[in-house]
Design a protein that fits this description.
The chain is α/β, with parallel strands linked by helices and about 400 residues long. The chain contains 14 helices and 18 strands. Bound molecules: nicotinamide-adenine-dinucleotide and zinc ion.
Length: about 400
């Protein structure tokens, strides 16, 4: 079958690879109908995520149809139209019992690999490096999904493939941030990044009752989608002092919750030279964590800052003093998909969560390298490139 493989930094190639087979009684095989680019793939592409191997099939946000089920699968059947959680989870370990599914103790077959990097292994994500399992990804005609019962979700009849696709990763990531950051009715929420994750974090904040939501980015097409589809306010960080504007919008106080949905490749104006020096001294690979810093500095005293953007290693210029002295709560997470996907599908079925507008470019799998180029360079208004194997 055809699949999109990572062959090196900034190199992708459509190759013929072996079709997946059931390896474990709990597996299912899914025939992929829609699979999309995610900001997280850009970190892989740029070489910021460790433990990639040439030939790895990437892709982790997708939906499709079950074509084979393992003998231990109880609740799924051939023919089910499903959306799949990017992080797969056993559903029965200590972490799954806490609903911290991306930390599942049974989903990562290489638990030792990230000990030096993070102190501990986390769970398993499809198509996202050997740091999180080394599973083949979804930019392919078929994919093996471990723990089929807990990692796949039947899409309700009224929800189209195009909408359900984003219940796989972008929407549950957004929900993870909104929920774990503790957004409450009446809150003002600021979101850095108007990609799929940031836009949906803004919309889900509204769904849980936030009174005012402001999204910060520099790309005009994305900011326009935020205003017109999501219904939130926007700030262009290239022309505005973000922290000052946020204080102005909140009577001098600052947002109650600040969500970062940008990640490692963040570039924004500022003293790049200074950071480059620090980066060199500390031998860091990562770029300036500008959005994280800005979120901490902008947040109101006693507020909450949450990092959804992906970071792999140590980053510098972290305003620990502001965090401590302002009584901030600070957190971050990989998506706990199975905790939020059922609620997301309900919101989608009710028409309260629309996502189709994110799919600005739809193309066959053969054209995936071009799709990634558009997505990476944010060309032609690309928010997400969707492939249809
Ligand atoms: P994306 O690349 O489509 O969007 C990122 C946006 O951030 C872009 O619109 C860019 O213009 C904007 N940006 C860059 N610098 C900025 C700054 N300083 N301030 C404000 N905005 C800035 O990516 P996406 O798919 O929306 O994903 C966003 C982040 O979330 C990525 O880091 C991705 O890896 C991460 N992510 C995390 C999870 C998770 O489980 N935690 C899941 C999916 C994606
Ligand atoms: Zn588990």
């Amino acid at each position: 079958m055809k699949a999109l493989t990572w062959t090196g930094v900034n190199q992708l190639s459509v190759e013929d690879v072996a079709e997946p087979t059931l390896l474990n009684g709990h597996d299912v095989i899914v025939k992929v109908r829609r699979t999309t680019t995610c900001g997280s793939d850009l970190h892989l592409l740029s070489g910021y995520i460790p433990f990639m191997r040439a030939g790895d099939v990437i892709g982790h946000e997708f939906m499709g149809e079950i074509v084979e089920v393992g003998p231990a699968v109880r609740h799924r059947a051939v023919g089910d139209r499903v959306v799949v959680s990017s992080f797969v989870a056993c559903g029965s370990c200590w972490y799954c019992a806490q609903e911290l599914y991306s930390l599942c103790d049974n989903a990562n077959p290489n638990p030792g690999i990230t000990e030096g990097l993070w102190g501990q292994a986390i769970g398993g994500c499809l198509g996202y490096s050997h740091a999180v399992g080394g599973y083949a990804g979804s930019h392919a005609e078929y994919i093996r999904v471990p723990y089929g019962d807990g990692s796949t979700f039947v899409v309700p009849d009224g929800v189209s493939d195009d909408r359900a696709l984003f219940a796989s990763d972008a929407a549950p990531t957004a929900f993870t941030g909104v929920d774990l950051a503790g957004v409450r009715p009446g809150d003002t929420v600021a979101v850095w990044g108007a990609g799929g994750v940031g836009q949906l974090a803004a919309r889900i904040s509204e769904l849980v009752g936030a009174e005012r939501v402001v999204v910060i980015d520099r790309l005009p097409d994305r900011l326009q989608q935020v205003r017109e589809v999501i219904g939130a306010e926007t700030i262009d960080y290239t022309s505005t002092d973000v922290a000052a504007e946020l204080r102005e919008l909140t009577g001098g106080r600052g947002p109650d919750v600040c969500i970062e949905a940008v990640g490692m490749e963040a570039h924004s104006p500022g003293p790049q030279g200074v950071y480059d020096q620090v980066k060199q001294q500390l031998r860091l690979q990562t770029d300036r964590p500008t959005a994280v810093r800005e979120a901490i500095m902008s947040c109101r005293k006693g507020g909450s800052v949450f990092v959804l953007g992906v970071f792999a290693e140590m980053v510098d210029k972290f305003p620990l003093g502001a965090l401590m002295n302002k009584s901030l709560r600070f957190g971050g997470a990989q998506v706990h998909g199975p905790r939020y996907i059922p609620r997301i599908l309900e919101h989608m079925a009710a028409g309260a969560l629309v996502t189709e507008h994110l799919a600005t470019h739809v193309m066959p799998l053969d054209e995936a390298p071009h799709g990634y180029e558009l997505f990476k360079e944010k060309q032609d208004g690309c928010v997400r490139a969707v492939f249809t194997p």
